[in-house]
User: Fold these one by one.
Assistant:
Number 1:
Amino acid sequence: MLRKNLKYTLLTLMLLGVSGCNQRVITLNPETRTSAPRVSHIPSQSTVREEILINKNPNLGERISSLPKKNTSLGSPAPVKNEHDANIDGEIDRADIESETMHNTPMERMPFPVEEYSHLKKRGYSTVVGTIYVENSNSGEKIMGKKVKLWLNPVTSYSNQWYQEDYLGGYKLTKIDKRIFNYMKLEYSKADGSFRFSGVPRGDYYLVGSVKCTQECGLSDKNKKVRLVKRISVGSGVTRVDLTKNVP
């Protein structure tokens, strides 16, 4: 009986020892993951100024092609004026287009006819060519107008008064209205006296110029200016005309 109880006791101890050697599985709570902080601000790339793209950096290649051709916010560029269509006020000496005074009493110049001039064209397709010179009526010598100013002055009531009263009549007119210079064309003759006007509208004009001469012209005054004026008609194509005068 005692031996039987001892046997059961040993068996029980063996079973308890085996169960004590088994691995225990322990479940642990996973650690809370920490997410990386969000970037609240992304630094922007520096912008390249448009004028640098266009004018200062020739190596940008196709990036320039994406720019607008025109910046409408800057408005339209100022038109380039042709040197002979620009206002020639300041280049015209009043003495060059007005004659010597023969009468002491000045004459009132008529008001500038704005309506009449508004119908005149400032540009055309005709050409006026010729030569300016003074001829000595005694010797027959020709004194060429070398590198002198010439003007085409459209025939109007305003320029007619100048021609009749100033050039022919010798009266000194009151101050000229500068707006007329916007309708006059200016050119310079060459060393041989030849001249050429281009881009002239068709119509009637006073061709005006002057030549300096003294003894060659049979005149006693030193460096006297001989004024030359001729009314001409300009048609299509080329108009050839010489501006001449016999002296003394």
Note: The chain has five helices and nine strands.
Number 2:
Amino acid sequence: MSSAEKKPFSIEEETPLAYFEKLVEFIYDPWYARFLRRISARYERAKIPEEIELMPFFVDSLIFETFIDRKTPLDRFIEHYQAQLKPRQLKIYQRFKTSALGCYEILERHKPDRLLLRDLLDDSPVEVHDGEAWRYMMPGFYAICRLLPYEDSLVLTGSCAVLNYKTREEVLALAREFKHPPLFVEGESRPASP
């Protein structure tokens, strides 16, 4: 079943992960898979430590940074389900458009889900509320991750590399391997369903 033929929108649990999983379900389709191949070709695996799982970064790049005939898969998802989404749900997905991949120093951890990060590019503090990430992000480490706005806070998507590096320069050098300009593809509109 292609994403264009997916069942009606429904979400069982109002969590950031549940909302994000709906996007992943939407792109789980052979038509989108070919764009994942193009995205993966942009990464120089030899410059990235083997223990970093790249597929979540590829998926995030596809959803948020790949413009297929001027629309991201997130744009297409919103168009496809707009009539079915409640106003609150639509607002959540529209805010996802402001997500950003960044590079951070992990400063503090507070139970049950609060993390304080520092953006390595401008030294600004960033507060994240994410119970899952809280378990593995330790102060003194660094992270290359995508922050997703959800309601009144920020959460992480699955694309998160936690790094135990000595200097921020090392982290920034690695972060450059993950930061690519958006991918623009023209003439690739999905064929109409029969």
Note: The two ends are 13 Å apart (CA to CA).
Number 3:
Amino acid sequence: MKELIFSFFVFVTLITTGVTEEDHGYGNRPRGVPSSKAALYLEKEEFECLDGSQKIPYERVNDDYCDCDDGSDEPGTSACPNGRFHCINLGHKPMDVYSSRVNDYICDCCDGSDEWDSGVQCPNLCSQMGAQARKEAEEYKKVVAAGFSKRSELAKEGEKLVKEKTAAKEVEDKDWEEKKNAIKKAAAEGLFAKLDSDGDSKLTIQDFKKIAEFDNDNNGEVSDDEAKSYLPGEEELNFDSFFEKSFDDVRRILRSKEPVEEKKETTEEPNTEKEENIEEEELEDEYSAPSESHHIEEEWEKKPPYSEATQKFIDEATQARNEFHDALRKVSDLETKVREAEQFVEFDYGPDYAWAALKGQCFDLDENQYTYRLCMFDKTTQKDRNSHHDVPLGYWNSWAGSDSDKYSTQKYDRGQSCWNGPDRSTMVEIKCGEETKLLEASEPAKCEYKFVLVSPAACQDPTKLEENYHSEL
């Protein structure tokens, strides 16, 4: 009888204190509310929906009827389709699940708290899962520590490369300018000689009046005023004055008066590189014109051997022309090197240049009948191993990670077009690893590829990783 009375007393106590409803691990919070929102669910006469849309009596919280538009009054039931239920998961990581999963006869929380009223007996697996997660975290910490050490080496190598490229760019810039100026001066000398009709090493009004192209009003003669426009404030020009004050204008006028059919036509948009190449072609034409070498070569088979003096002139002209072309080639090579150095130096390799050392390196992965290749900051390809043909899956576009983790993803696009589909593209997910290698390749959507790359360059400082891990717990 005493035992029966004691049991009845316990039952009454549970009913009157509400323990059957509240003893769920959430303390004084309603079921399904995380501790971070406890202050918003303090028991009082009215509960205000978290979106501020309305106030309801507090007893309507978790009454299995959705009152708030944002679902905040039903954190512990499935009444609101847009609600969230918080799993405490003591011993493992807490998590939120959609309210629709509450009491749906499927155990989602490792502590089984989401099935509190379905009758399903969910085993509490949190301790087991937590132990496994901690073991994996410890193993991952070792990988991160080793990877971060290698990242430091990559960063030093990358910083060294950037410094070397920067220094090389400065030298090549200077060399490029010097060679360009030398070629321009050589062209100016050729044009000066062509304009200097009396060979006195001076250009006067009379010299300019003899060139029909300077007849700006097209009246059949070059007036004094028209000629003077090429002698800015001077009675005559020696070569230095001509090069400094008049060469660019004279060259422009002469080029503009050429017959239309001789000009190269193009419908492409102009750019700096093309303009520089056009300028070199113009300089080449102007430099080569005075030698009349083309005429000499045409007459070679028609005339007897030249005199020694003439032959010497031909040889000197040929040598000068060859030297000029050689200089043009060197300038072109320097332009290419300067552009490459500029692109390398201006590229975003991360805050410590860790990715710079990997630029241009390629990594392969064999998957089924295909070989996938990622060439860092260049392109992604797919190759059927029974074929010699590579299919471009994308070309470098940008870093595409979130604002807080920018360097976690790369985007490659503008790949080969799919049949009746878009251009192929690749998103490369990057994770920490002790060695850089391509780990996965898939096509989750038509013509949209996903690669997974692991690399030391993606490894965080282990101390920061530890902080993040504890903050999650």
Note: The chain has ten helices and twelve strands.
